[in-house]
Fold this sequence. Notes:
By secondary structure, the chain is α+β, with helices and mostly antiparallel strands. It is built from 16 helices and 8 strands. Among the domains are: about 40-120, no CATH class; about 240-325, no CATH class. Helices cover about 35% and strands about 10% of the residues. The strands form 2 sheets. Strands 6-3-4-5-7 form a 5-stranded antiparallel beta sheet. A 3-stranded antiparallel beta sheet has the order 1-2-8. β1 (about 130-135) and β2 (about 145-150) form a beta hairpin.
Amino acid sequence: MGIGWKPFSIQVTLTSVIIAIGLLLAASAGGIVAWEQQNSNGFCTYTCHAVHPEEPRAHDVGVHARVQCVECHEGRLPTLELMAAKLEHVNQLWLMMVGWERPGHATTLRPLRDSCEGCHWPQVVHDDSVRVKVRYDIDEASTETRYTLTLHTGSGTIRNKKSKGIHWHITQKVDYFALDPLNQKIALVVVHNEDGTTKEYFDSTLGITRAEVPEKTHGMRMQCVDCHSSVGHQFRNPADLVDEAIASGEIDRALPYAKARALQLIGVADQLRGTAKELAPKIEKLVDDAIPQSVRASDELEEQFAAAMKRILLQSSFSAKGYNWKSFPFNTGHKDFPGCFRCHDGKHEDAKGDTIQFQCNVCHNLPQTVREGGVRSVPSTLDPDDVEPRSHRNSNWMRDHAIQQRDSCEGCHGKIEVGKDGGSFCSNPACHGREWPAIVTSKLPVGGDQPAKDSAAASKKKL
């Protein structure tokens, strides 16, 4: 019996070991699958915490479409650290079960050295870059205007050392104190110099005193997303999406009043609410009512317009009442939101009364504008060897330049003809005849109005 028992015992033991290994492998495989599922975009946006359902749509057509939600919101961390970080979000799962008000901004983003800088290495040298923006008017021909900008992106070869251009804000240590959760109203900016000193710029127009800043604001160290906000799922201005559709030929300008008709549909669609599944038939009906099928069937241009507008309207629609694309500021630039002008507005002053530099050409050159029909902006006739006048180096020059106007300006800039229709240096439609968020333009030329040349204030200032 003893001799027969041993092989049986070994067989049972081996079988048990094999089964145990199999179960362990199955559990491991299941754990890996479960872990991958928990880190998927679908789980993050619909299962764990259903944030704005428009965000996945915006993410899918954005520049970070191939970046997973967790790579920004939890960081590119080692697995064990990432598991620990997930525990910080358990409260959101509970809120999802009992009901919550969807947030308008992220409160749990990891430090950018754990996320953005995994791809965007700050020590890389950035050359100037050229951007071309094409816009269309609401006239019958949807007249085209083309803006060309050279962005002084700046370099960051050595962190915390002196750098120039837009990325100075990252290589330099800058703290700011904002009144609102979206950081659109900035009361105080503190610049930390290399020698250990600091310089403060305070905006006294926001209704609080300098002493109240610690109590009524929240402070942060400036980082990438303070300008590139919502970069993972940016909600675009639908009018810009129309311009891009026209520029690409998706909407043909041969169709009369194409841009004007598109804006009219956008205005009506802004009132629609519902999930993507609910919105699709509503948007289709809206477009069908505006462009009857009988017309579209006989006109290829109308058919193209209808298809493009359905895509744009669905991409720009929101389910929750009270939300639209304007609810999520994107602060790169300053066309639709204050952006750069949150600080560079001529209102943040230091102890001496100097402001944070308010000059367009700090971050980019003066826009070169070409309007269809031959009217265009005219560059300065300045000789490269000439010395820039002292007034031009004033930190608030862009606000004050109109009241400092002199006949001597013509020596560099040509005939002074202020306006917004192009044809002279001082009638650039990219600058004049427009409203900029957060900027008071009482001292700047408006439309075609000519500013006074000989005001008392101007006469005391030297060029």
